Amino acid sequence: MLASKHIALSFLFFCLSLHIANGADPLYHFCFSQENYTANSPYATNLKGLLNLLSVKVPPTGFGLGSTGESQSQINGLALCRGDVSSTNCKTCVVDAGKELPSRCPHKKGAIIWYDNCLLKYSNMDFFGEIDNENKFYMWNVQDVDNPTSFNQKVKDLLSKLSNKAYDIPKLYAAGELELGSSQTLYGLAQCTRDLSGVDCKKCLDGAIGELPNCCNGKRGGRVVGGSCNVRYELYPFVDA
Question: Which parts of the sequence belong to the Gnk2-homologous domain (predicted)?
């Protein structure tokens, strides 16, 4: 484990229930702010307004950011849907996240939540355009591959290729696959929040790829999920073409 805030979660993919696989339940969340707001305060009102704004702004393109309020009551937020998710499922995810996060982090001025289909983050701090290296967690398949050294290199090759592709396009998202032989295929994904520059997106993704050995060495599937970017690989398809 890298730090107290870097949480490791392991999942055996065939034990995952269908509703988790479909992104209906949160993967993880952090209540990262030490500052609180009170019920019925201007900040609470502005948070509701921000969540409503994001639920409308995000689904058409899969990403949106916004700010509501002024001075000490201002709140900033963003939401990102996975690049292959439809606008309908994106909206559902963002709305669910907007309901779930305030209840999981009551009265906290800053918090973040991840689902398979989206992430949502808000804070009283201006975090737009900055790489979030603090809020991060790992997930992996508990099954091992037969040849971890070779497999790890294939994972790095695929995800590095996807990183190079993602940072250079406006959507900051790329998914792809690599044939491993013996009728086996490796699938991967790399994505950044679109408030980042292309250069910072690549920096974030390459950093996440570099962290995979800390959690997922020789594992059949794994991901590093952060507040600004995430990478994932599996031996089964997990995104829509």
Answer: 25-127, 133-238
DSSP structure class, residue 197 = -
For 58-76, the pLDDT digits (tens) are: 999 999 999 999 999 999 9
Residue 200: φ, ψ to 5°: -70, -30
**Residue whose C-alpha is closest to residue 154's, from 61, 220, 227, 108:** 220
Domain boundaries of the chain, sorted by first residue: 19-123, 136-234
How far is the C-alpha of 229 from the C-alpha of 171, rounded, in Å? 12
Sign of the Cα pseudo-torsion (80, 83, 84, 86, in order): positive
Class of domain 19-123: alpha beta
Ranges of residues in the chain whose predicted pLDDT is under 70:
1-23, 241
Mean pLDDT of the chain: 91
What CA–CA distance (Å, rounded) separates 167 from 93? 24
